[in-house]
Structure formats: structure tokens, C-alpha cells
Amino acid sequence: MLAEHLKEHAVAASVDAFDQEALRGGEYALGELTLEIAPAKIASVCGFLKYDQGFIRLSTVTAVDRYPAEPRFEVVYLLHSIEHKQRLRVKCRIAGDAPEIESVTSVWRGAGWYEREVWDLFGIRFTGHPDLKRIMMPDDWEGHPLRKDYPVTGHRV
Amino acid sequence: MSESGVPANLLAEAEEQEQQGSGTRRMVLNMGPQHPSTHGVLRLLIELDGENVAKCEPDIGYLHTGIEKECEVKTYQQAVTLTDRVDYLAPLSNNLCYCLAVEKLLQLEIPEHAQWMRVMLTELTRLNSHLVWLGTHAIDIGAMSVFLYCFREREEILKIFEMFSGQRMMTSYFRIGGLALEPPRGWQKRVKAFIDVFPSRIDEYENLLTNNRIWIGRTKGVGFISLEDMLDLGVTGPMIRAAGVAMDARKDAPYTSYEKFDFTVPTRTENDVYARYQVRIEEMRQSARIIRQALEGMPAGAWKADAPHVVLPDREKMKTQMEALIYHFKIVTEGFRVPAGEVYQVIESPRGELGYYVVSDGTTHPYRVHMRTPSFGNLQAVPKMVEGILIADVIASIGSMDFVLGDTDR
User: Fold this and answer.
1) What are the residue ranges in chain B where pLDDT is below 50?
2) Could you say which of A19, A81, B91, B203 is the most buried, measured as most Cβ atoms within 10 Å of its Cβ?
3) Do residue B341 and residue A30 have CB atoms under 8 angstroms apart?
4) In a 3-state reduction of DSSP, which class is residue B377?
């Protein structure tokens, strides 16, 4: 069900029309629109946004760790429509235990490195990613540094 | 990884080719991370079929310094100094993007004088960055002398930065709420002296390169990558403008009063190394125009916002007013609180779309800062661009991307 405050945003309405179960909520603050999507639907919704709504560019993919709250992780997709000069933030909340979400590399190949970075630094697995391996840290690194329970300083014992 | 550091799959593939007895053997060439033409610590694993690149795999992360993590333990104002170190050839662009993001969260109004000052200095940063790119790119291709000319002008820009901030490179001159210091006396004269001669200096570079037969031979028709691939892979900046898309955040979503300046966004359609060269040369001319407009039309006024809870008070006031002293103590020891929320601020850095995604949880430290850096997005397109071309053209192709590894790895 489309929330009242999102009705004036055409993108939110069309995502809701595309898949009633996909849209979980959203927010419009400081001139920026955020849509929260059900994690299972992310690839299909992104495909819809790209091919139907003109968001042909994926600006970046990143994540936020809400530790110790649950669901722990927010995966954030920042989309850009050159034609409409419009930006959109799409968000998925996923649980902290073995976090996993479908890859959007089938929609934008450029998601490849961004998802690798999120895997490397947050430990979120992207299913269906063609080459999911570490990108910033060495291959044999243990842990995922951008998690909130990973210390900023200290020595390994 | 094998002992030599070459991934096992590449080695196995090369071996398989050999066993098939096709008469040709593929060689895996390890370019970098200490290769001078990769401008920093980029490592390219290139599989060669004769002199042609059959496969290319970039390996990044050698300069990963954990800036995003570090931001989370700094106060908002302290984190400005970290943003300098992201893209060390365009520190002020990074300062600006971060400050704009936090100011948006704070809903802080910046005085016009400070905004124009920011425009002028970010455009000088663009010139600084493009000059380093032009000099080193030309050296890579064999035009040695251009480098010396470019660094002559760059030196002047660095002196201007030093005059403003006391630092040549890591300026941290933009702070949340305005500028770090009052603009120095006599800056107009210094900037005017530079901007008066600079357009003629661009002519000098062009004299050396634009109609140079060797330059044309090495760059025209080299490094092509289709527009569809670029959009799909997230390429931005001069690269995509050389493919005919006038995508520029300064025009599309103006920030810091860019809408008040008269300039054009140069584009080309040839989409090769030469077109990217032409786009950047024209961008330098446009930046010079913007700087001149800023210099001549600079509005008078305050150089920092009137927001005592965010901006440090004047030294004088601290000695006479109790409140100023209290605010100073609070800001320095604790920092200022930023309302909970999140923003994604995009600006046009010399390399392309630079975005700062800042999440606040209402405390004095950023909860999360993510930098969407143009070099990271652009580098992803390297394999697509170089696969199939001659090894000798790889240098020209990656040089035309103008990436900075600090910007890529953060």
C-alpha cells in the first residue's frame, strides 16, 4: 500500500504499480527521495527503474551498518536519470546474520565493483555476482573493516 | 594467487592455450603497481596475444587507507582534513562536496561572498588537476616538454593556494559554514596576474600538441569505448563528455551559486583519446572564464556563516564576549551536533561525478561517510576500453582517463 506522503512522487507511485509487494516505505527529506524496497525484489525493481523510469545510471552502491539494531544492514543504491536530471535513493534492509542480497549486475554491469567493495568492507554477499571477491583489502584479510563492531585501531593477536 | 602474484585462472588459461598447440602462446604481463605510467599504484594484469591485449584485469586497493572508517571517529569539522587526502590533485573539490553535504544536513545558509570564493578556488583546483593530467599524459606519450610548461602554471596555482590557506596541496580551506580563514590581503592582484596570462599559456600547450602529427597519430582513434558501455559501467566527467553527453553537475544541479556564472560545457563526439584531450583543454578555458567572472564580480560580505554553534568565533570576540568563548570551547572539545538524516551531495570534480553520501545519527560524529569517487567509476571501464587494442596504446588510453589512485582506493 502506497503511503500518503509518497503519493505525490511519480516514481514511488509507478514502483508501487509495478509490484505491490516491492515498496516497503520511503521518505522525502532535504529534497531527496528515498524508496525502501523489499530485498527479494531489488533486481526486478532496479530493472524497472532503469528501463521504464529512465534511471540509466547507477551512481554508486554502498551500505550502512546499524549495529546493534536489527535488521542490521542497509544496502543503498544511488540512481541517476540524465534525461530527467533526477536522483533517487533505493534502500534495502537486511538482517545481520549471514547478510545476502541479489546482485544488480544484471541491470548495470557497473554495479560489479561497487558490490565487491560492499562485500569487502561490510561482508554482505551479493548472489549472482559474476566475480565476488575482495577489492580493497588483501585477499587473505579477515573481517570486514567498515562494520561497526570492527575496531578502528589496535593490533591483531 | 600463485607465487608470482598472477591469479591462477589467468595462468591456467595461458597454459591451456599452449597445450592446444595453436602455435601462439599468450603472455601475462604484470603492469604495475610501480609502473610510472599508471600514475600511482594501479596494477593491470594484461594477457597478451602477440602485441594485442586479449584480456585486462585491473587490481586496485594498494592505496586503501580506510578514510571512510576514519571519518566515523572524527568530528564533522575534523573530517574535512581527511577529504583532502581522497583526491590529492583536487583537494578543494572534495572539501567542497563534503561541506555542502553537511551544510545541507544542518540547513545552513552560506554567505554569497564565501560561495563565490568557493567557486573561484574550486575552478583553480580544476585547472591544477587538468595541468597535472596534461603534463603527465603528454610525457607518457612522448611529448616531454609539455610537462615543464604545465608545471610552471601549476606552481602559480599552488602559490595562490598557499596564500589563502598556508598549504600548497592539502589546503582544507573550505570548512563547514564557509571558509577556514579570512581571504588574505591582496589576493585579487595575485589571482588577476595569473588569470591574465593563463589563456595565452593554454595556447602554448595547444601549439605544442593540437596539430602535432605524432600526438595526433598516438591519440586519434585510440581508446574508443561505446557510450552504452560508459553509461552501463558508470563512467563520468570529461570521458563521457568526449562521447557527446553534456553531463555536468555544475549545470544539471547547480551548487554554490554556479547558476550565476556564464560558461559552457564542452563536448566532442569522437570518443577517443584526442577528443578527451580537446574536452579538457576547452574546460580549462571555461574555468579561466569562471575565475575571471568570480574575480570581477566578487560580492562583498562575510566569509563564514552566522551560525555560532557551528562556526568558530573570531579571536577578538573570544577575548571580549563570554558566549563566544563558550561556543569556541564547545566546538573544539565536543564538536557540533548535526540533525539525524542523510544526504547525497554531488558535484563536478575535475575527473567527473563526485558524490558524498553522509549519514548522521544526531551526534557530533558522522555515522557514515561514503565517497562516490569518479576515478573508481571510471577505472571499472578499463578492461572494456583496452581489450583488443595494441599494448602500446594502453598507456595512451588509461592516461586519457585521468584517474587518481587515492581517489579510487580511499
Assistant:
1) 1
2) B91
3) yes
4) helix
